[in-house]
Design goal:
Strands 1-2-3-4-5-6 form a 6-stranded mixed sheet, with helices on both faces. It has 2 domains: 62 residues, no CATH class; 161 residues, no CATH class. It has 256 residues and is of the alpha/beta class.
Length: 256
């Protein structure tokens, strides 16, 4: 009974650490976070980067949230010839991970800690913009997920260590050109379509051409950031990947 209670308490504490932790935390804050889990451990001899590593290891080993799955997606595509990105807004949703090469492929994460309340709306939104779409879910969500998402959406189940492809995504033929254009800035619209007027672009371009230029625009938008985390992967701690994707700051400046 006591062991089970300790696991529950630690689980709650780890969730609190995930909520509180950022790569920008200084040594006193890092020690405070770790002391909540290891109250008897002397952390005085740990330097700043070692404290970051300790927190990252703790989260990777003991936490079942989306941060861990985002890291696993990065590892899956790190050596592929493509561009990828985190957290892209589509209508009122925000897709967790997107790859762009010859096609756009989205990955929505529903971890063991998530619910599926928004999944129907999210999958419908992603289908308007991307050619292939996937749900990455904890295995406990599988039966309910199948009844929620369209048949064209792929399903990948995950547990702590492994993943399984339950079904592959089908090429999406329900793209909405207007939605794709709304994902781009005015600068991008002008650069790739020669106009910032969405109605004008829709009149002058066929949907297939809009889609091709949309992929090129996204690839150019995210290439520098994606290449940065790939090139610096050995020096970036797992849970911090999205931070460095957004900031493109050398890891030494943050951890030292």
């Amino acid at each position: 009974m006591n062991a089970a209670k300790d696991i529950l308490v630690n689980s709650k504490l780890i969730k609190e650490i995930v909520k509180s932790y950022t790569p920008l935390d200084y040594t006193p804050k890092l020690k405070e976070l770790l002391s909540s889990i290891y109250p008897a451990k002397n952390l005085d001899n740990f330097c700043k980067v070692d404290l970051h590593k300790k927190i990252n290891d703790l989260i990777i080993d003991s936490y079942e949230g989306e941060q861990v799955l985002k890291y696993r997606l990065f590892k899956a595509f790190q050596h592929e010839k493509l561009v990828a990105a985190y957290e892209i807004k589509v209508k009122n949703s925000r897709v967790d991970f997107l790859t762009i090469n010859g096609h756009t492929t989205s990955f929505e994460i529903k971890s063991n800690l998530d619910n599926l309340d928004k999944l129907a709306k999210q999958s419908d939104d992603y289908i308007t913009a991307f050619e292939f779409n996937n749900i990455v879910i904890h295995e406990r969500h599988l039966n309910r997920c199948i009844n929620i998402i369209p048949n064209s959406v792929g399903i990948i189940t995950v547990d702590r260590k492994e993943h399984q492809i339950i079904r592959k995504p089908v090429f999406n033929r329900n793209l909405h050109a207007r939605t794709q254009l709304e994902l781009l800035s005015k600068r991008e619209l002008g650069k790739y379509y020669g106009s910032t007027d969405t109605s004008d672009i829709l009149e002058r371009f066929e949907p297939a051409a809009i889609n091709d230029l949309f992929k090129l625009a996204l690839k150019d938008r995210y290439r520098i950031r994606w290449n940065f985390i790939v090139e610096n992967a050995d020096d970036i701690l797992p849970i911090d990947l999205q931070f460095f994707f957004n900031k493109t700051i050398k890891p030494d400046y943050i951890y030292s």
